[in-house]
């Protein structure tokens, strides 16, 4: 999830844990603990782009990192707030749960999380919620603002943190139900339309959870399309994209390329753009793909010009968006 959502969630958890004893300082501890796993962003200051992509949501999002960091934060907070009536065990449970909630929620996005680093490089992803979903973030966000303004002893504070955490949890469960429905429909459509595949994934299109991006992989390429939960017809208009591995013969031993293939979890295509090869990671979707089926992919990496890839994950995410784009997204959500 985005950083502001993590801060708001952490603040609500801090209030739930020790708002009555520590006041708004409890919110600060919660926001801090919920944000700490994202400290991996500093890796971009010295790592090349492909290495930084693997570092993000890697070790700092692992269970081992959570286990190591939790007692340190608990000891620090326990000493700073003496005298108090909060046991060290409660501090440990608080910080452990806040950090774990961060790495757990991040696994709902399509980037993937290295829960088992450094023992396994496998990335965990549920592909159930877009990385910036306002329908998830609005609840802890509203609660956070209310808790900032309400005084320490106000009984209404309990209602706000419960609303912030409760509604976001309900929305996550709702997203999983929607995903189960989409996956069931997609499998039926594959069979009906005779789409051959050896693996596939579905993940939400930007900013909502009703329109989903679908990728089915076979030995030579991918069928890509979109499915809305409101679609009345059991069909998807797929666009086929060849993998084009043959274009990589001259770059096969490149360390950058091997890192990108690992990062993409083998969902990639290669294209020739003028004088450079472009590596596309299909997991991040297409730029306005529901409107332009042959559109570029959000994640594209210039293999011959690695210095041009600093914002590779972000640069295509909302490229070309305008009022008409928002309208087209709404209309596509309404169904085929």
User: How far is it from the N-terminal to the C-terminal residue, by CA?
Assistant: 30 Å
Order of strands, main sheet, comes to: 1-2-3-4
Q: Determine the mean pLDDT.
A: 94
> What is the oligomer described by this structure?
single chain
| Rg computed from alpha carbons, rounded to a whole number of angstroms | 22 Å
Strand content: 5-15%
Secondary-structure element sequence?
HHHHHHHEEEEHEEEH
Q: Please outline the major beta sheet.
A: 4 strands, antiparallel
Secondary structural class: alpha+beta
The count of β-strands is 7
- Integer count of domains: 2
Tally of contiguous helical segments: 9
Summarize the amount of helix as a percent range. Answer: 40-55%
Shape: globular
The low-pLDDT segments are none
Can you give a write-up of this model?
With 336 residues, the protein is of the alpha+beta class. The protein has two domains: 3-174, no CATH class; 193-333, no CATH class. It contains nine helices and seven strands. The protein has a four-stranded antiparallel beta sheet with strand order 1-2-3-4. The protein has a three-stranded antiparallel beta sheet with strand order 5-6-7, covered by helices on one side. A hairpin with a 3-residue loop joins strand 2 (211-217) and strand 3. The longest helix is centred in the middle third of the chain and has 37 residues, at 156-192. The radius of gyration is 22 Å and the shape is globular. The mean pLDDT is 94.
């Amino acid at each position: 999830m985005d950083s502001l959502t993590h801060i708001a969630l952490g603040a609500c958890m801090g209030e739930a844990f020790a708002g009555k004893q520590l006041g708004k300082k409890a919110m600060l501890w919660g926001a801090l603990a919920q944000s700490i796993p994202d400290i991996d962003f500093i890796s971009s200051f010295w790592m090349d782009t492909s290495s930084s992509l693997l570092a993000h949501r890697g070790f700092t999002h692992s269970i081992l990192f959570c286990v190591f960091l939790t007692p340190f934060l608990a000891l620090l907070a326990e000493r700073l707030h003496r005298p108090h009536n909060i046991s060290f065990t409660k501090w440990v449970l608080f910080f452990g749960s806040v950090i774990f909630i961060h790495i757990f929620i991040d696994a709902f996005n399509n980037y993937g999380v290295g829960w088992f680093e450094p023992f396994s490089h496998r990335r965990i992803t549920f592909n159930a919620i877009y990385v910036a979903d306002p329908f998830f973030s609005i609840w802890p966000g509203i609660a956070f603002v209310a808790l900032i303004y309400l005084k320490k002893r106000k009984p209404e504070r309990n209602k706000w943190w419960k609303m912030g955490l409760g509604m976001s949890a309900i929305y996550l469960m709702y997203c999983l139900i929607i995903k189960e429905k989409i996956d069931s429909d997609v499998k039926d459509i594959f069979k009906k339309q005779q789409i051959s595949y050896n693996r596939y994934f579905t993940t939400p299109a930007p900013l909502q959870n009703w329109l989903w991006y679908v990728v089915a992989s076979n030995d030579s390429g991918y069928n890509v399309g979109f499915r809305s939960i409101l679609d009345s017809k059991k069909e998807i208009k797929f666009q086929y994209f060849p993998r084009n591995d043959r274009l990589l013969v001259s770059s096969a031993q490149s360390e950058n390329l091997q890192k990108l293939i690992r990062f993409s979890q083998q969902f990639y295509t290669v294209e020739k753009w003028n004088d450079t090869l472009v590596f596309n990671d299909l997991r991040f979707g297409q730029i306005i793909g529901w409107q332009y089926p042959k559109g570029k992919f959000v994640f594209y990496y210039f293999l011959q010009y690695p210095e041009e890839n600093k914002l590779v994950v972000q640069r295509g995410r909302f490229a070309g968006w305008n009022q008409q784009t928002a309208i087209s997204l709404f209309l596509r959500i309404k169904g085929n």
